[in-house]
Amino acid sequence: MSPSRSLEGDRNHTSVAMFVLLGLSDEKELQFILFPIFLGIYLVTLIWNLGLITLIRMDSHLQTPMYFFLSFFSFIDICYSSSTSPRMLSDFLKDEKMISFIACATQYFVGCWMAQAECCLLAAMAYDRYVAIGRPLQYSAIMAPGLCQKMVAGAYASGFLSSLVQTVPCFHLYYCGPNIIPNFYCDITQIISLSCSNPFIIQMTLFLVAVFVGFGSLLVILLSYGFIAASILKLSSIKGSAKAFNTCASHLAVVIIFYGTGLFMYLHPSSSHSKKQNKVLSVFYVILIPMLNPLIYSLRNKEVKEALKRLVKRATHLL
């Protein structure tokens, strides 16, 4: 154990200055196999998301609110993945997977900030799709650049504040000895279980944030899609209905994957296999989803494919 460090003056302190991350596996051979796999996933995540941001910024046909939101969504995925992947990759090559108290708090803060911002941004994108389908003649007036910028700023600010109110109380709890986290990153539920303090306040804080930010965003998404469904049903032509639904398909797929995995990970009952299940779900939620999101938007979107073709055509003319 490292020397104790003060947390709340002389009255409260913690003797834990380092946490031990157990990682995905303690088998050395398996870790060497997993390293190139997860390095590849992380590089694909960076390349696809950065590529999508660049494409949106460079192509004039993609200068619409939907793609404006998508570029910031891709930036969130880059930051979210980068909060855990580099540490996990370096731990594959280490015998002792130690993380300092401050580094653990920072990792959780950034990851939580990005996850909460993603919830809010998904809600903003759902509202954008509702306006595009339900009120097409007023779309340009309603989704003006100023409103889009405020919605993005609001999503990032909400994520920042909600992450702050979770991180500060959690890492001001009294940690008197146990310091082993059975995962590859600093998960707040597992960190709280190591505390020697009464966790009631931080647990209530987590619950309230989940209700207001997580479920609040989900409610906006569900309401938006309810109005979208009602608008699609009013369309007389099948072709028009299919086209309207197709504009929402990618966003809907991302929402189902993001919320479906998150709800299952934090709401499923504990069992004898819960630690292994948590690790598998954590990998999918923290590592794979940021890679899948740009793929879903790119592969299912005709406008993105056409923009990519135009960019390649321009590049070949320059050579």
UniProtKB/TrEMBL annotation:
Tell me where in this chain the G-protein coupled receptors family 1 profile domain is found: 48-297
This protein is called: Olfactory receptor
Q: Which PROSITE patterns match?
A: G_PROTEIN_RECEP_F1_1, G_PROTEIN_RECEP_F1_2
Alphabetized, the UniProt keywords read: Cell membrane, G-protein coupled receptor, Membrane, Olfaction, Receptor, Sensory transduction, Transducer, Transmembrane, Transmembrane helix
Q: Which family is this sequence assigned to? A: Belongs to the G-protein coupled receptor 1 family.
Which CDD domains is this protein grouped with? 7tmA_OR5A1-like
Main localization (coarse): membrane
Originating gene: LOC101402991
Instruction: Return the Pfam families for the record.
Output: 7tm_4
What does the UniProt function comment say about this protein? Putative odorant or sperm cell receptor.
Leader peptide range in chain numbering: none
Q: Where in the cell is it found?
A: Cell membrane; Membrane
Q: From the record, give the transmembrane residue ranges.
A: 32-55, 67-83, 200-233, 245-268, 280-299
The record gives the membrane topology as: Multi-pass membrane protein
Q: Which organism was this protein described from?
A: Ceratotherium simum simum
